[in-house]
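Example S7 (structure tokens).
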């Protein structure tokens, strides 16, 4: 059986122990060597580790039950295709350029569900470190509403209050959103991908609408949350945004790193004058939001 490239990429992505960068590395090396998926799957665990620098876990899983791995991949692909989920790797020409332009270490695999045309729109995000004050949450909502009414598309997430405060705003106006997840699609939207992502959003819309919104996840569809996923998600939110507004930044935290990364990539960055150290970011090129 000859595996199409997309099916092979999904097989790699679904193999335990294979991270996104490993998937990209395998695809790129196979293309360089002219090695087919079938030839790759016939290699020994030692070849996987030596030639492709795969982890011991990934190498053993690839070699253990190849026929079973192919069978489960085909079943997963049929399920994803039936739901309209697509997969893109960083080795693909249609990988989002916004991510590649900003992140020196982009996710190797992205699962996309919904309105992918939004990736070409005027995107923005409103970011905040955790434990935002009530005034910060109000500012998140205000900035989001101003941009949505100007026709911009919000990039946000679902599982912390600071993201949720922005994520409900487009629902009020019937506007689209891009939601970046810190776990798999099925973990958030349910087995049929019809659930809204969090309880407050269901007050505005009972079911998720893939014709309007887009969900992006760098994790396997069934993957649960683990500790580092939130940082991967935050980077993805930031990278998919053409403009980044920061309302609250904890000193030395992830949001500060994202602000600096965005400025290095020459993205438009705005920072609230309530943020400690906002003057330093202004000196690096950020605009100041006066409160």
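Recovered sequence:
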């Amino acid at each position: 059986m000859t595996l199409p490239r997309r099916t092979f990429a999904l097989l790699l992505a679904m193999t335990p122990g294979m991270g996104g960068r490993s998937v990209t590395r395998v695809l790129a090396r196979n293309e360089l060597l002219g090695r087919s998926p079938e030839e790759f799957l016939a290699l020994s665990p030692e070849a996987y580790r030596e030639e492709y620098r795969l982890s011991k876990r990934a190498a053993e899983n690839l070699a253990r039950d190849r026929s079973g791995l192919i069978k489960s991949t085909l079943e997963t692909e049929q399920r994803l295709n039936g739901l309209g989920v697509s997969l893109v790797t960083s080795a693909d020409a249609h990988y989002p350029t916004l991510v590649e332009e900003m992140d020196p270490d982009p996710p190797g695999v992205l699962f996309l569900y919904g309105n992918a045309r939004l990736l070409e729109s005027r995107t923005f995000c409103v970011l905040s470190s955790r434990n935002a004050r009530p005034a910060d949450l109000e500012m998140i909502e205000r900035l989001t509403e101003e941009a949505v009414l100007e026709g911009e598309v919000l990039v946000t997430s679902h599982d912390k209050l600071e993201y949720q405060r922005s994520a409900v705003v487009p629902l009020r106006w019937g506007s689209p959103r891009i939601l970046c997840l810190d776990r798999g699609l099925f973990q958030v939207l349910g087995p049929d991908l019809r659930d809204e992502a969090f309880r407050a959003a269901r007050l505005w819309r009972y079911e998720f609408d893939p014709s309007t919104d887009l969900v992006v996840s760098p994790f396997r569809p069934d993957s649960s949350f683990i500790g580092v996923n939130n940082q991967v998600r935050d980077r993805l939110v930031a990278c998919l945004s053409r403009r980044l507004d920061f309302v609250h930044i904890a000193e030395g935290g992830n949001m500060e790193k994202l602000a600096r990364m965005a400025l290095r990539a020459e993205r438009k960055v705005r920072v609230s004058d309530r943020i400690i150290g906002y003057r330093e970011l202004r000196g690096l090129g950020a605009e100041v939001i006066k409160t």
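Notes on this example. Residues 113-289 form a domain with the Rossmann fold fold (CATH 3.40.50.450).
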